[in-house]
UniProtKB/TrEMBL annotation:
It comes from Corynebacterium halotolerans YIM 70093 = DSM 44683. The lineage of its organism: Bacteria, Bacillati, Actinomycetota, Actinomycetes, Mycobacteriales. It comes from the Bacteria. InterPro entries: Ac/propionate_kinase (IPR004372), Aliphatic_acid_kin_short-chain (IPR000890), Aliphatic_acid_kinase_CS (IPR023865), ATPase_NBD (IPR043129). GO terms for biological process: acetate metabolic process; acetyl-CoA biosynthetic process. The gene is ackA. This is Acetate kinase. ATP binds at K15, H209, L210, G211, N212, G213, D282, F283, R284, G330, V331, G332, E333, N334.
């Protein structure tokens, strides 16, 4: 059996999986791991190897040491990089800008191009580059592939992609809607035509990725025509800690009131959303608070649902005809109450949730609408690591064939 290694590097963490790219979406990876608190006094490595959990608390000075230590721990359990055959390393890269639409084989030049995009993703792309550089040093003989979170939205129609901002300034600074979570929207939306028994090019659909971060997409015939995140992942839906769409004038107002740009950034990205309104960002806790009569939790939930319904409604009009609406990610897959409230009272538009189907536990792709519902509603679990593993493996194989 051959495997792909998938890396998602953050500023102080590396998440990774070693998995079979031909596995099913619900299969457990051979190894999943998290290296966290890199650069802090005590770091931690947590691995799950064939279902067994292994943890180690050690100082981890930098990304390089973190990955080396994780690989050494994997080797102790017989699943290190020299114990199994790895055919590709897939790297999640947050921002591909206007340059990258498809997965890219990583070379020094590609790393420089990702570096050039740092102004568009100042927190994410540097961390992604750290992960790429470290992994290329440790595993120099394996093809490394960058898979971009923005790629799926690269070719959106200009009316959806461009902002009504002075054209010269927009061009100078690359201001446009890039969209994020593209790997997830693509992975999930590609399964819907099969569920409908139709071919991909005849399906119009809305996908709702509701995790801690959240985004909605409108997809026509396999191509994204709109999405809720923008130049950055701050835009669109209300999220765990991010505000989603707000009046941009709020930022000037706060700035003129004396808040620094960094504190406004922190406020809108980390202290807002459901957490900023209720104190919690986990929907399990939010639901318990609502059941206990907490009015802030109830208000946060209503603001979240209100915004979600706005996007669903506007994408229905943009698409004209909708065949399916699909929920995915932590909230979308597990919180049946969110699905119910997001689509309640829409039978006149041909949307009818079946409460029995909606209440079933999260177990693979499934329909939750009634047999009569004209627009079908699905839950399709996302698996971004598997999607990246597949893309990286396919590209590595294509390169292999074109070289030999
Ligand atoms: P991320 O955006 O960090 O990848 P996930 O897609 O894993 O996040 O979603 C995490 C969120 O999913 C949690 O914060 C929580 O709100 C929600 N969630 C996870 N499991 C459940 C559950 N059983 N019921 C309700 N919400 C859940």
């Amino acid at each position: 059996m051959t495997y792909a290694l998938v890396l998602n590097s953050g500023s102080s963490s590396i998440k990774f999986q070693l998995l079979d790219p031909n596995a099913g979406a619900n299969d457990e990876p051979l190894v999943s791991g998290l290296v966290e608190r890199i650069g802090e006094a005590t770091g931690a490595i947590a691995l799950t190897v064939r279902g067994e959990k292994i943890t180690s608390e050690v100082p981890i000075p930098d990304h390089s040491a973190g990955l080396e230590m994780a690989f050494a721990l994997m080797a102790e359990h017989g699943v290190g990089p020299s114990d199994v055959e790895i055919t590709a390393v897939g790297h999640r890269v947050v921002h591909g800008g206007k340059v990258f639409s498809a997965p890219e084989l990583i070379s020094d030049q590609v790393v420089e191009m990702i570096r050039d995009l740092i102004p568009l993703a100042p927190l994410h792309n540097p961390a992604n580059i750290d992960g790429i550089e470290v992994a290329r040093q440790i595993l120099p003989d394996i093809p490394h592939v960058a898979v971009f979170d923005t790629g799926f939205f690269h070719d959106m129609p200009p009316a959806a992609a461009l902002y009504a901002i002075n054209a010269e300034t927009a061009a100078e600074h690359g201001l446009r809607r890039y969209g994020f979570h593209g790997t997830s929207h693509e992975f999930v939306s590609q399964q819907v035509p099969d569920l409908l028994g139709k071919s991909a090019d005849e399906v119009n659909q809305i996908t709702l990725h509701l995790g801690n971060g959240a985004s909605a997409s409108a997809i026509r015939g396999g191509h994204a025509i709109d999405t809720s995140m923008g130049l950055t992942p701050l835009a669109g839906l209300v999220m765990g800690t991010r505000c989603g769409d707000i009046d941009p004038g709020i930022i000037f107002h706060l700035y003129r009131q004396g808040l620094s740009i960094d504190s406004i950034d922190n406020l809108l990205n980390r202290q807002s959303g459901v957490k900023g309104l209720s104190g919690v960002n986990d929907f399990r806790a939010l639901r318990e608070m609502i059941e206990d009569g907490d009015t802030d939790a109830w208000s946060a939930y209503n603001i979240y649902i209100h915004q979600l319904r706005r996007f669903i409604g506007s994408y229905m009009i943009s698409l004209g005809r909708v065949d399916a609406i699909t929920f995915t990610a932590g909230v979308g897959e597990n919180a049946s109450f969110v699905r119910e409230d997001a689509l309640a009272g829409l039978d006149m538009y041909g949307i009818e949730i079946d409460p029995g189907r909606n209440g079933l536990p999260n177990d693979g792709p499934r329909e939750i609408s009634t047999d009569n519902s004209r627009i079908k509603v699905f839950v399709v679990p996302t698996n971004e690591e598997l999607a990246i593993a597949q893309k990286a493996t396919q590209l590595a194989a294509r390169m292999q064939t074109s070289v030999s």
